Amino acid sequence: MQIADPAEMTQEFIYTFSDNDNGSDGSGNFLFEDANYTDCEPEDNDDLRRIFVPIIYSVICVMGVIGNGLVVLVMGYQQKSRTMTDKYRLHLSVADLLFVFTLPFWSVDAAAAKWYFGGFFCKVIHVVYTVNFYSSVLILAFISLDRYLAIVHATNSQKPRKLLAEKVVYACVWLPALLLAVPDMVFAKVREEKDGSFTCDRIYPEPAETSLAWMVAHRFQHIIVGLLLPGIVILTCYCIIISKLSQSKGYQKRRALKTTVILIVTFFACWLPYYVGIFIDAFQLLDLISYSCTLEIFIRRWLLVTEALAFFHCCLNPILYAFLGAKFKKSAQNALTTVSRGSSLKILSKKRNGLSSVSTESESSSFHSS
């Protein structure tokens, strides 16, 4: 899900992959560079990376921090009354929040076309990025499964829902996400370029055949874990839910049906265009699609734009899975009211202490002067 940015090539081919995409453009695309392909990099791609990517990533980061931060805050204030759905919302918001925290690093990387943060942060940002990217989409699959159990098997779903929300989610979401980040721990490195600048990339081992195998494997891992598996679960569960709700009447049922359709459409509208680009790029690497410079340039531009659209899903998650609920709105109002009251009390307390201190000093001054 990241881009390997064109670096100056000294061998038959070198592939660099940065978690955030290009090591030098900070976007999330997969780019393949061959010594014969260097003429395929158009000038407007630089403008796209250095201007479009930092702006979009910054907007996503700000919106993601506000939305997901509010969800985490509200969930923290309702620990005792937290439902199983709320637990998934908390997992999702934590994953999205940590994910968007990596975007400022990639924004700087894209704007400057170089890495300023050193080798340690290169690995850390790659790992955090990958873990929370995969955990986010896998949690969406768990939410759809939870909704399926709650609606289709409402009478006897309490125990399996509790098991999924409290135990299985760690074994089937966070653990696989951590394991999928192992290649980042191994291959994410800072490399010095000929001009003295540094790039943060996934640098796969040579020879060329080994590097190519890692590239292709990563792309298909990305497609399978990031889209196919969660997509199949989401589509299957929600289609069964739609079938169930369509047989019922009433305003609440219609609203639930409408919300379910929105969840499906939003997920695939955000992610499918991006994965289409990765899929075509993987086929190019395998020579299943004949290489052309025009197609190569198109794929790079396509991935830059569609990746930003895919990442925007992190901003939509709080709205789709939390803000639309009446219970969450009420909880949010209570949490914000509690926070504002607490802040007001602290300010009043400080003012009172300040006035008391002034009063004491005044009395002391009067006493000594007399």
From TrEMBL:
Main subcellular location of this protein, as a coarse class: membrane
Membrane topology category: Multi-pass membrane protein
Pfam family, one: 7tm_1
Listed Low complexity bias regions: 356-370
Highest taxon in the source lineage: Eukaryota
Region (Disordered): 350-370
Keywords recorded for this protein, A-Z: Cell membrane, Disulfide bond, Endosome, G-protein coupled receptor, Glycoprotein, Lysosome, Membrane, Receptor, Sulfation, Transducer, Transmembrane, Transmembrane helix
Protein name: CXCR4
Classification lineage: Eukaryota, Metazoa, Chordata, Craniata, Vertebrata
